Amino acid sequence: MRRLRNVKIVATLGPASDSYEMIEALHKAGADVFRLNMSHGSHDEIRKKHDIIRKVEETTGSTIGILADLQGPKLRVGVFAGDSEQLVVGAPFRLDLDEAEGDAGRVCLPHPEIFAALEPGASLLVNDGKIRLKVIDCGTDYANCEVVIGGVISNRKGVNVPDVELPLAALSDKDRSDLAFVCELGVDWLALSFVQRPADVEEARELVKGRAAILSKIEKPNAVDRFEEILAVSDGIMVARGDLGVELPVQNVPPIQKRLVRKCRAAAKPVIVATQMLESMIESPMPTRAEVSDVATAIYEGADAVMLSAESAAGDFPIEAVTTMDNVATEVEQDPTYTQIIEASRKADRMTVADGIVAAAREIAETTNIKAICCFTQSGTTALLTARERPRVPIIALTPEVGTARRLALSWGTNCVMTGELDRFKAAVVSAAKAARSEGFAGEDDLIVVTAGVPFNTPGSTNILRVAPCDERLIFSSDPE
Asked: Fewer CB in 10 Å around end: N or C, the chain?
């Protein structure tokens, strides 16, 4: 299903979008990738959604990506005798390992690893930052705090520790079980929560064993500080602005978002901008002007994808939310300013033959009357390098690997077409010409650019470029190479 935009849309599935009819409608409205949130739902429910997506894919003839988002370790306080308490600014409050019910002066925090990492002066944020505590003194089983921002604290509210790197693995026991399940199921992307260090990603990669691409969620200050190291071992990135906005001053998030998106673009790795993009559409059929501007900003920055969370998972208007995002993306990409910004921010260190080939393909396509860049890719690397160039013409990624096609559903501007195994470049050119015509990108009288690697079916071997006609008779009558 050809889109009239380059940026991709990720839609989260949930109670509002778990039927075949709704998932098909969301895809037709613009969803390119579906997110399965492993924080909610049993394995049977996740399997049902996965199977429906694959049926929609078969029915529509589209390539649809599936992203499984692991929950990550959840840090929560215990329970209160009265279910909740009011904390007053300036009052003392103690966190400890005592499992007794809490009161206005203390509550259990059943995470000794937090106490082991805390130091006086550190901040603890409760309930998404609505309550802020400052550590006055601490030990291996307690932290005496002062209430800096007060409010109502209730049972099992989440705790964030922004100031220190916690000695916690990104994968909990639940995550390991979920990881094994979704990899066996056959998801295309695995989103890793609570990433603090490169080792977290490397641990997950050992367990995944190549069955899915790994996307690191950047939601902690430590991950921002070590971003380049994390990016180097990740296949993609999600800028999870919700948790970043809790653990960092909110004014820090927009410049961080811009920096991370640019670094991902330079590395030719997909980047999703996520969280609260059209939050009001959970309950309203229309977004706020600020939300529309927020989505547009991510697109102007060159993000590969923008994501809907509760809007499509639990909202009253999931189709309208996807449609709105699609409309905003289409309008932004037609703005001449968009092209100027994207091209002005194009920066990459071109070190390989493949880098040079895709850069040349873009230059040729933009200086002549070329209708599309067709790249043959086994692993997806060539298509990602081509997408990094952000060309003005469509990208057609041809691959014999269905897994590669589905993963590329997350990559900017890539239109994936399945092709058989090829062993000659002329056959590749003919296949590209047919795909360009059948997908509506070019007519018989038009030209395309074709890139491929010889020998074929060797990942990372892109070394040849040809400007070719879409008329197969002209291809066969011309010099073969």
From this structure: C
